Amino acid sequence: MEAIKTFVIASLALSIIFLLLYPVLNFGAAKVHKRAQKFGAKKPNISSAKTQKNNQRASGIAQKQYSRSDDFFRTLGADPDSLRSRLRQAGWSISVLEFLVFRFMIGVGCFGALFIILAMPIEMAVGAGLTVGILLPSWWLARSIKKRVDTFNKYFPDALEMMVRTLKTGLPIIEAIGSVAENSPEPVSSEFRRIRNDVAFGVTISDAIMATTTRIPTQEFNFFAIVVNLQVETGGNLGENLENLAKILRDRQQIRRIVDTKSSEAKMTAKILGAMPFVVILVLY
Prior knowledge:
By secondary structure, the chain is mainly α. Helix content is 85%, strand content 0%. It has helices spanning 2-25, 29-41, 49-75, 80-89, 96-117, 122-168, 173-183, 188-200, 205-215, 219-234, 238-284.
């Protein structure tokens, strides 16, 4: 038993050391992220060839970093592209490898606490560590995605109305997107800032907005993408269409609040009844 405890303590120590040294061992990923933040903080200039060259170089470094780690995860049967997409949806600026390292640390920490501190049998401690290490980070990631999407939907109608006011002054749509990027709260401002930067680097407005739909998995933004794509392809009064869309989204939010209010009591009852067996088991143990 003492040998097992020594092994667990040594594993925890090595895991902590690896976590502390990970920024140094990450082969330039932190540098790439810092450069990306630097580009996002500045207003891009289409005529700046140096900026475009630096951006392409940073993208190349990031692609090499992704391909090196993705090949390793695919050999283990994992899907790094799906996990990376979910990390972007949550607004987390960490890599797939970093997320898996944190998941491993949580699982090992839970196992060590139950086995060493609470003297739980090793089989139960291993099962609890695996369960917590797998479920807790995934739950937190899903919760962060939902929270970010809900916040985006909350401020998105205001952003559309801001675009309508800008378009009515006669300015082009890219200026309307820029006004939203500069004057809206997060996460609306960061997503529209990315759209503006992509357009400045040569991407079409339609493609930049469609790329954003993968980071904002919400029906509200899909409506906006459809309206802009139709206006680009067929023409029409974009300001009037966006104004109608903003009104529809506000009505959807009002209906959703009514439904949540009427169903809150039933949801709370279901949570209490679902948690009672686990609470009773814990108390008896």
